[in-house]
Amino acid sequence: MVRETLLDPERLYASIDFLKQKTRANQVKIERELQEIGDATREIATRKKRIVDLYGMGELDREEYTRKIQEYDKEVESLEAKHKELLKFVPLFEKKELVKASVAAHCRTMKKRFTACVDFATKRQFLLDFVTKVVYRKTWRTSATVKLCGMVPIKTDAAPEPIMVSFTANYTIGQREMIGRYSKGIPADDAYYGAKVARAETYQFATL
Fold first, then answer.
1. Distance (Å, whole) CA 65 – CA 60
2. Which of 39, 40, 62, 38 is nearest to 51 (CA)?
3. Which whole-number Å values give the CA distances from 41 to 49, 139, 144, 158, 196, in the listed order?
4. I need a surface site. Which of 1, 37, 116, 145 has the fewest CB within 10 A?
């Protein structure tokens, strides 16, 4: 299933979370959030000026003044961090080819690592390095779905460091594959997968 989901550039690109919904809708949402952050920052600046004026007129003691100023500075710092994070995604909506190129490069890196996997330990390390979460859900006695979640580094000219974007790749285990796993002695108990697959400790499917 890794070959069909993580090593296929087109399949992995289609799994990028922020691209799954309508691009324009996502872009408008980010622009709205940036505007809200700007409004909130200006409101804090107004309140901060009021505190400074009250302190200057002697209507506020130093302890209360310091507490309020630190409180406002902390709020602004949080807003600025969120603003900076949102700005990273703006170029990605307009440069799809850039995203595709980064996804293809990431697939090549994963393929090289996966080709070198020769046993359970190396496969487990591969999952720990490239997959942040595995969700196994048995949909029927002879079928199941697996979600592989992770991050893809997207390189842009606007940021010195790659932008990490999340992906959620879905894979369906059909009847034939299920039977193959049973024949290899892989447990069919849901609790087994629910408890251990997510930690990538027992994720040893026949077709990994």
1. 6
2. 62
3. 12, 48, 48, 23, 45
4. 116
Tell whether the torsion through CA atoms of 109, 115, 116 and 120 is positive or negative. positive
161 Cβ neighbours under 8 A, 6+ residues apart: none
Distance CA 189, CA 186 (A): 9
Q: Measured between alpha carbons, how far is 200 from 123 in angstroms, rounded to an integer?
A: 9
Reported confidence tier of residue 172, pLDDT bands at 50, 70, 90: confident
| pTM of this prediction exceeds 0.70 | no
pLDDT of 136 reads 80
pLDDT confidence bin for 184, thresholds 50/70/90: low
Query: In the chain, at which residue ranges do the beta strands (DSSP E only) sit?
Result: 133-140, 143-154, 163-173
pLDDT digits (tens, 9 = 90+) for 35-72: 899 999 999 999 999 999 998 888 889 999 999 999 99
Compare 194 and 47 and report the one with higher pLDDT: 47
Check residue 150 and give left, alpha or beta (phi > 0: left; psi -120 to 50: alpha).
beta
**In degrees rounded to 5, what are phi and psi of residue 165?**
-115, 145
Domain extents for the chain?
2-17+98-199, 20-95
Mapped onto helix, strand or coil, the DSSP state of residue 16 is: strand
- CB half-sphere exposure, 76, CA atoms < 13 A: 14
> What residue type is assigned to position 89 of the chain?
F
